Queue: 2 jobs
Job 1
Amino acid sequence: MYCRKCGAELPEGSAFCHLCGTQTVPVPAAQGDTAKSGSGIVVNQNFDVNAAGAAQREQERDIEIARQQAGELKTRVKQWAGAEVPPQESGPEFSGESAAPPRRESERPSGGIVINQNFDRNAAQSAQDNPGESAQDQEPELGFVWYRIFQVLLALWALNNFTATGTALALSARGAGAYAFTSIAIAIFSTVLFVQLLKYKLAAIRTLTVFCVVTPVLGFFAAAQAERFFASLGPLLVMVPTIFYLKNREDYLD
């Protein structure tokens, strides 16, 4: 006999289907085609038996597939569970006492501001590597004042060189060739040196300040004709030490 709902084959005398739990009704074997009286509808009882057999075979196939899938899943679970876990290294170097504390990217203090400790360490390391840049950043106002003074003295220096060149040309026309040559040479040398000193920073500004102050003073006191030659060499007393001074101050190079 077969279950009329799922088509499972049942033993004789079963009251319920062991698969779907439906109450069973005995189905006789193939009895051929019969006609229902008074209805005109032909009922093929063999259809129920054939449909039940096809449903049973399909259900058995589904059950077999499910069993195979369940077996494969159990095998994979066993493989995952039995996978070797690398043992944790132990020893004095990995103990809790000697190990470094956990690295925290940031912490939030009571003020609510996030502080990145890595940034602080990097900034401190950069400050140690470049102490000169930190010192310059800490004195912006002093550098600005020196730069303004340098601009004023630069204009005075240019005026002084222009006046010295004009005086040299006038003396050259009168026959004082030696003094004229010396004055022109000093003017050219001062201009070239000034252009070269522009490559430097605060050290050059301070040195040029002294040079620009000393030059007019030496020219003012050189009133006598015989002393003009020595007065023209006066700026060299400042420029020569300036050259050696700036060579030793490589930290002020651009």
Note: Residues 45-81 form the longest helix (37 residues).
Job 2
Amino acid sequence: MKRLFLMIVAIAWVGLSTCPAYAEETKTEASKTEQSQKNEVADSLKTPKEPKADNVGSAQGVASVAAEKQSREVTTKETMIATIVLVSLALVVSLLLFWLVWRKLNHQLSRVYGKMNEMKTNLKYNVQKIEDLQTRISSCEKKVEALHSELGALKNDLSRLISEMQAQPVAEEIAAPPVYQVKTWYGMYESSRNGFSVKYITTDKETTSQFIIYQTSETSAEFAIIETISNDLFSGAKEACEVLDGDPMNFIKISVERKGQLMLEGNTWKVTEPVQIRLY
């Protein structure tokens, strides 16, 4: 398009530059022709023969007609040249305006096409997002339906269990066993034929006490040996103990691993399980 525009401008420039020269050349030729005709008329008048008056008048009339005709032809040529120049200029201006308008329209169309492509891309992206959302919504709806089904099944199971529980007879309440308050006693043991028995039990802690007794019921109790007992005191109670580690004849401290068990037989507490100890 740029090449075509340049060619049109060049043609118009050549036409504009050539037309004045052609007009000037035409004017020169017309003036030369008119001058030659005048010279011929003058030569004919200078001849020795005296022409008649009507011949002289006719010659002058012919010369004036020829000059007028020549001037008309020159004027016509000049008018044609001016018309061609104006038409060429109008054509050049029209082509220039057309090129400018076409260029602007092309630029606008390019922008419109760019926006259309961008809108198409955004539309495709939005459509994809909508499809993804629809897929997620469908998945959520399926999950909700599954949960409704599970809840319905659980509701039915719960209703059945409630009905079964209501149909069962009410069981009699079982009396809770009595709770005995743990009592802490102190006591000495003595040997007997039926094992070991508590010689006496007191609630007062004495220096000669060897065992701490914890009553757990009316007929049972737990006991533990005092950790600070001496060798002499331990010698009278060692048969009620199970020594796990250490020398019974040489120790300074007793550690209780497990309490022993006492059982009330008549009025006497008997050892059923010895206390387990370690000697240090």
Note: The chain has a mean pLDDT of 74.
